[in-house]
Amino acid sequence: MNRLVILYLLLAFLVTCKREDNEKVAPIAVQGVLDLRAVGQSVSPWDFEKDGTVDLVGEWEFYWNELIENPEEQKIFFKNQAPSKIQYIPVPSEWQNLEVNGRKLPADGYAMYRLKVLFKKGEAPISFSLTDFSFAYKLYVNGSPSYSVGKVGKSIEEMEPLLKYGTLNLREETP
User: Fold this and answer.
1) 8 A C-beta contact, residue 120 and residue 107
2) Measuring CA to CA, which residue among 84, 88, 99 is closest to residue 58?
3) Could you tell me if residue 151 is left (phi over 0), alpha (psi between -120 and 50 degrees) or otherwise beta?
4) In contact, 133 and 92? CB cutoff 8 Å
């Protein structure tokens, strides 16, 4: 009888630890791309209504000491960037844990991050919840400025940090 109880408890434990088959694992960014289309994968595309929200986590492109303010240079950057300049940083993380050209980055500085998010065609309008930022940044969507907080600058004197929460609503744009 003791064996039966132990076996029963073991089966109960295994059943409770098993992940639900219908529970979908959210995708993460790989080398600067977050693909929500599930192209060529055995899973279906991400469905926000059914599957829920997606955190924009994973490997983002990272450009240390880069700040492009000229609109013409921005157009070039958003269309294509020289692969030799691309580095990747895990998001969320702090850049002082990263090395660039063999040097550990300081806590103070400036950088640009870039993430390409791929949606399935006809995806319903979505939004980004912008929280936990207490510094200055500009957010671009498809190369156009879409949201900003504080004043971006290359030095402490030039920038004005700000704590601001918000929601950025997006609509699918077809090229």
Assistant:
1) no
2) 88
3) beta
4) no
Q: Which amino acid is at 168?
A: L
Closest by CA position to 132, among listed 55, 61, 48? 55
Whether pTM > 0.85 for this model: the answer is no
DSSP 3-state of 60: strand
pLDDT in tens, the chain (175 residues): 444 444 444 444 444 444 455 567 788 899 999 888 876 565 677 777 787 788 888 999 998 888 887 777 877 777 776 656 788 989 888 888 788 778 899 988 888 888 888 877 776 557 777 776 667 888 888 777 888 888 988 988 998 988 887 777 765 443 4
